[in-house]
Every structure is written in structure tokens, then in C-alpha cells.
Backbone:
């Protein structure tokens, strides 16, 4: 079995999941208010999404900001592209663009 380095693992996660949220905690038990708000917005839309708990993956927590050029968590990726963090997610939910973006992701509820 091949062991992937951290950057390769992150890039594979992003490529393999149409919607992935890097967050603190889990969707069932977010461990910060920003992650809780992001998960809430995604759940309202009802599309499935993958997640990575960066609190239990310290190598990913350290490396992802260098890859994404985004310093904080959560970080939402859709179709392999960084969408942004909590403020952007909530803004897109409010203006109606988040559901439209997720509809392009090829994931079924």
C-alpha cells in the first residue's frame, strides 16, 4: 500500500469529492462556531458533502492553508476549487448562489 504525502492526500481528497469541507469537528459535532455555521448552510441546501476534521488531522490542518492560500477554517471546495470560508459560504447562502454552485457539483441528495 502506497502512503501518500500530505499535499498529495489533500489534492486527492479535493479531486475525489465534488463538495468537501475542511472544518473543526464533524458535521454532527462542530467544534467552532464558524464550522457550525458553514455546516448549517450546507445542511439547509440538502446536498451531500464530504468533510475532514482538521483537529484530528494536524498535518492537513498545517498544510492546507499553504495549498489553498486561505489561512482559516472552515474551507469549502466545490468541483476542485476553493469557495472560501464561513463568511463567504454564508454570503453565498444569503444571495442564493451557494445552492446554484452546489447544483453544479454532481452530487445527489
Residues:
Amino acid at each position: 500500500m502506497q502512503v501518500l504525502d500530505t499535499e498529495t492526500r489533500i489534492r486527492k481528497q479535493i479531486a475525489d469529492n465534488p463538495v468537501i469541507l475542511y472544518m473543526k469537528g464533524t458535521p454532527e459535532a462542530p467544534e467552532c462556531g464558524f464550522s457550525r455555521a458553514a455546516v448549517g448552510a450546507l445542511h439547509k441546501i440538502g446536498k451531500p458533502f464530504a468533510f475532514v476534521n482538521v483537529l484530528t488531522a494536524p498535518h492537513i490542518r498545517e498544510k492546507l492553508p499553504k495549498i489553498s492560500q486561505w489561512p482559516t477554517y472552515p474551507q469549502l471546495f466545490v468541483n476542485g476549487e476553493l469557495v472560501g470560508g464561513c463568511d463567504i459560504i454564508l454570503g453565498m447562502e444569503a444571495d442564493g448562489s451557494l445552492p446554484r454552485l452546489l447544483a453544479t457539483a454532481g452530487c445527489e441528495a
User: Anything to note?
Assistant: The domain at 6-102 is CATH 3.40.30.10 (Glutaredoxin). Residues 55 and 100 are 30 Å apart (CA to CA). The chain has a mean pLDDT of 94. The chain has one domain: 6-102.
